[in-house]
């Protein structure tokens, strides 16, 4: 269930906390919400292929006031509302994404 997560990430059900790390999400993560503490620099959150998670949602939340943001990136030919990336910059800002099997949509 947690294979591939870094040692400073913790899980509570479908909620994960990512501290000062980049993350490449996979279907093995089986998560709904990722809470990021970015610190001073931007952190990368790479999404799995939308085709692997059709009908699933993922929420990314920036929890801290650090200068860094979350740079969310789609892979392959996937997009996020037609773009390759979506940034989450401010403390307590979040983005909720839905896969239709070929792209990610902000909902």
What would your notes on this structure say?
With 107 residues, the protein is mainly beta. 0% of the residues lie in helices and 39% in strands. Strands 1-2-4-6-9-10 form a 6-stranded mixed sheet, with no helix packed on it. A hairpin with a 2-residue loop joins strand 1 and strand 2.
Main features:
107 residues, single chain, four-stranded mixed sheet, six-stranded mixed sheet, disordered N terminus, 10 strands, mainly beta
Radius of gyration: 13 Å
Broad shape: globular
Residue-averaged pLDDT = 84
Order of helices and strands: EEEEEEEEEE
List the helices and strands and how they pair.
Elements: E1 10-12, E2 15-19, E3 23-24, E4 33-37, E5 43-46, E6 57-62, E7 70-73, E8 85-88, E9 94-99, E10 104-106
Parallel strand pairs: 2-4, 3-5, 4-6, 5-7
Antiparallel strand pairs: 1-2, 6-9, 7-8, 9-10
Give a concise summary.
The chain is mostly beta strands and 107 residues long.
């Amino acid at each position: 269930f947690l294979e591939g997560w870094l040692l400073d990430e913790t899980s509570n059900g479908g909620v994960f906390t990512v501290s000062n790390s980049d993350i490449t999400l996979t279907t093995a993560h089986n998560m709904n919400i990722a809470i990021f503490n970015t610190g001073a620099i931007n952190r990368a959150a790479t999404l799995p292929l939308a085709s692997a998670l059709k009908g699933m949602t993922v929420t990314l939340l920036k929890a801290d006031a650090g200068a860094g943001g979350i740079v969310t990136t789609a892979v392959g030919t996937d997009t996020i509302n037609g773009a390759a990336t979506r940034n989450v910059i401010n403390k307590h800002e979040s983005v909720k994404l839905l896969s239709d099997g070929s792209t990610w949509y902000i909902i």
